[in-house]
């Protein structure tokens, strides 16, 4: 790999000069934030010629461009990742030490961009990394949120949301491109025009908004490909400042129009509990789609216009792939159709052929209620011309359906786009796409068998599976320096380029020196995380205990509740029997609950209430501790994953699409305690049944209970001593000291009949946990299991996933 700096001295000279020119200070006078921003700018500067060279090659070789539309890109801090990818990590690290600082000091100043929230956004970021690594001309298209979802604080055990002002000090990686701005219109009136046989429509009036792009470099490992992530910010087309209102003292009213427009890109996932929030969210979805499609069209026309001025539209599907990550970008199909017909003058059939050969769709949920819909009245009022195109797509779909399938109203009811007063975005995505994929083997099977079974019956050739993947370079290479160094010393650094190389670690299963070195690495990572947890929460963890980790978005089906029930049960047994000595364990939780998701926030409150009791009881605190890490992000995730020893993947079977934390934890040598759900199924196959702990109901058993007889009270009464005691403690005051009892959780379990089968899986879960902990005493045997997980984790590289997308879906 060619280093972007010829030597340490070359780096220091260029870096010092850039600090002086950009900051206007000597390096020694600049503060850490100024030094960080300049270092990021230097790396970005050195990467731009690579991007220019790539673009020239794409044009010369007529390469296909892939545009990945996602409302989230959880890219995390980029500096160390890009230094690794550009071969400059060691050079910069050494150079900074010689200059009187450290890379770790500067990297600690880098913010987590507030461009994503959970697995959806992290997957999108890994895919961009892998597209660049694989030499694919791949471009992210998303929103530039002024504020992230929120910063999570824990106050009296409760989640409190505060503003995530991630742009407060600027963002050194981005470049504003005002010359590429796109005008987008909301509302207005659709006007019909007729000239001879030709009929066309225009949109008149309405709210005009300017979408301004900001480009962030995406540097591929090896430094041969630099792509970009383009994110859009909403601004007024024209400055509408009311001077009279301002002079009258109505300052807010004077700039109200600007404020209303900028609200579109102010925050990720505005609270959609009310009508204003829902409209704002639909505006976000259309703005980044319309702006992205306009950007694609500019590039395509520039590169595919003939000498006579005509555009080679027939080449569009061979030059452009548009991938929609979940249903947020579902409007890509109708917007592309609108542009091709309304603006470019193509006939409908030609335009529709281009749309369906270019657009593809990834589904991320098996929950029918999570499939996005919009009231027709709201949709039509905000996007009148787009609604006409959606209506036309739906009309033609129905017409063709009737010709092929007659009066099969059962099929039409589940597959039509417009039904029961709603626009169904998943159906729109499927009909506009040539490919529909799930993100784990079992997830795709559930889509085909249940959630999207009617579409699968009609067009089985559209459906395929693409099991998710992660970036090993970031989540093992960057995040876990001690373990990655150990791996590299044993098998070389080829695994950074090709994660399947990790298989070579199988040769060390019985190597006592390597296995003992794993213990030293894990201890170092646990000490690092324990120090962070003490600083952020005050909780002191014993690094000789097992670190049991569950870190992910809070949701009922992910069953953080089941996990804390296990802790409550252990506590009860310790108090009831002084002779009961479980394997000492630290239970680490992290994750955010959506602002309006009351149940999930109650589970967070319960975890913190249990922590307050358990951690302060000397009878138990030496054996079990509970820590809730606030404001889960890529930054602190990179501390948590390397330190974990048990990976909690305990969602209700059949509910998790894939998961990616399970892959990150596996790669870092944590042993999965989980259900046969999502990618856990494939993890069990890869790692081997002896190196993972599976428990609980299967997908088929869950379905049987849903369709048959299940009564939570029967399970409760059948285990009053342990499970019943835990359930009773929700309302008997045991954990009420911080903020009161937990009657809502009790009601969901006992009076709403435990929809996620927390009670049903409880005994199987706690037994599996004890079985797994029982293996911890033999450290070499434990490390052998951990090493088997790392060695067999290479399949879950996003590089592999992207190669499958490229070959099977995008045809790159």
UniProtKB/TrEMBL annotation:
EC assignment: 2.4.1.1
The protein, known as: Alpha-1,4 glucan phosphorylase
GO molecular function, one term: 1,4-alpha-oligoglucan phosphorylase activity
InterPro entries linked: Glycg_phsphrylas (IPR011833), Glyco_trans_35 (IPR000811)
Catalytic activity: [(1->4)-alpha-D-glucosyl](n) + phosphate = [(1->4)-alpha-D-glucosyl](n-1) + alpha-D-glucose 1-phosphate
Cofactor(s) needed for function: pyridoxal 5'-phosphate
General function of this protein: Allosteric enzyme that catalyzes the rate-limiting step in glycogen catabolism, the phosphorolytic cleavage of glycogen to produce glucose-1-phosphate, and plays a central role in maintaining cellular and organismal glucose homeostasis.
Key words, A-Z: Carbohydrate metabolism, Glycosyltransferase, Pyridoxal phosphate, Transferase
Pfam family, one: Phosphorylase
